[in-house]
Amino acid sequence: MVKTKTFINTIQKFFSSNGNIYHYLKNYIVPENIFLIFCLFWGILLVFINPLFQGFDESEHFYKIYAFSDGTLNFKKITSYTDGIFMFKDPKTFSAQIIPVSIVRIAVESKALNPYIDENKIKHPPNKIKFSTIKQQSRYNLDKNFKTLVVHMIPSYTIVSYLPHTILLTLMKQLDTKPVFMIFLLRLCSLFLYTALIYTAIKITPVKKYLFLLLSITPLSIYLGSVISTDHLVIGLSFLLIAYILKLKYDNNIKNITKKEIIFFSSLIFLLCVCKFTYLPMILLFFILPKEKFANPRKRITSFCLIFLLCVLWISSYLLYNIHIFSGTFSYYYKNTTEGLISIFTQPSNYLISIIKTIVINSNEYIQRTFCDFGFSDTQIHSGIIYAFIALVAFNVLFTDKQKAPFNIKEKLIFVFIILSVLILTLTANYIIFVLSPEGLIAGFKGRYLIPVLPLFFMLFDNDKLKQININLPLITTIYAFFFLAVFALTIINRYYTI
Q1: Residue 275 above 70 pLDDT?
Q2: How many structural domains are present in the chain?
Q3: Three-class SS state of 378
Q4: Predicted local distance difference test score (pLDDT) of residue 137
Q5: 108 burial class (0-12, 13-18, 19+ CB within 10 angstroms)?
Q6: 130 near 176, Cβ under 8 Å?
Q7: N-terminal to C-terminal alpha carbon distance within the chain
Q8: What is the dihedral of CA 329, 159, 451, 308, to 10 degrees?
Q9: Is residue 165 assigned to a domain?
């Protein structure tokens, strides 16, 4: 009894010494820490419940990383009458990589989970997998000396996009790690990198912290952060770039933008362009920075021009190199890049019509799949759940997530221009590369490509004329996000697994 009273007195003293438990914890219940808990909990869960190689083009990204770990910066080519599945009347030249058979075996077994067409051109419905099957796959040895040449449409990303993964995979190869554990560890590498970038973004921005939090814990954002790809890096860098610009703009401690700040901004935008050049328009965020924070107007314009020139030189070199290395290779979905580029200038009306038709017809799909999508995109969550989350995020910006000096019309026009430019550039890249659908729609564009500019879209709702409301919208939206993620995880389990 005495011990019980002593314990109760200790607890009472603890609370009384701080006045209120809220005041004690408020320094810890901050957006960046909420993100850290959310992202690691759901991210680690998604790393392991998502079947092997079911992320977007995950096997292709893995092959690319494996090639880099072998010291290969390019891909192999093979000319054959078959790609291993289909037979052709004339020989075709394919892009390919030399990969251990055990890894290719897992990729082939995983593709059976998705709808596919076999060598007899018979369409098969999606399958499910048992947990025991993954357990069996975990026994496959790497066997680095038993390899095969696998044909695949290799992503044309540079080693920069995969550097941490390449280092980790090189180490795992030395330790003869089994392929299944390689996949899980590379997914965790993506997750930790995504978490670090977004955590830093939320921490450094003086405004819109809850906006960054809510957009970074959507099901698709965390899903992309927990698979082997480059999306986690693109999203992380873009959010960090926007957050850094907001810090330079609103942080009262930064009186002058010096060479140090310009170099850091240049590094972020350059890395983003290296990962995916279609996000170059985000360089225009430079112009929302206050003019008075620069030493003089000449320095401001000169700095921007140098950064822009550096990025354009890289993108031009990158595109020319890819046109060169991909020339002569066959694809089921692609067309000749040079011909696609020329068609924009020779048939501008067809190009514009395709852009407009694609946006109008697919807009609803793009919106939903910007927040929720996975695997082969053959399973969806009810649209009402998705649009309710979008509305809650918008209400947070309208009513609670405010700053002392809201964005003016000029700044919002810059946001609109960036969003539209990224959308059109990405669609144009797909128009040049992909064969159009029979309806004249552009293939290859995914809703996830819009995630990097989502903060800019929601910041358009910023308005100082609306009064704050008494409801704690950030808390409500965060709780709803937990529900959203739970539905997402259960949908994945229901889609892929059977007893």
Answers
A1: yes
A2: 1
A3: coil
A4: 92
A5: middle
A6: no
A7: 51
A8: -100
A9: yes
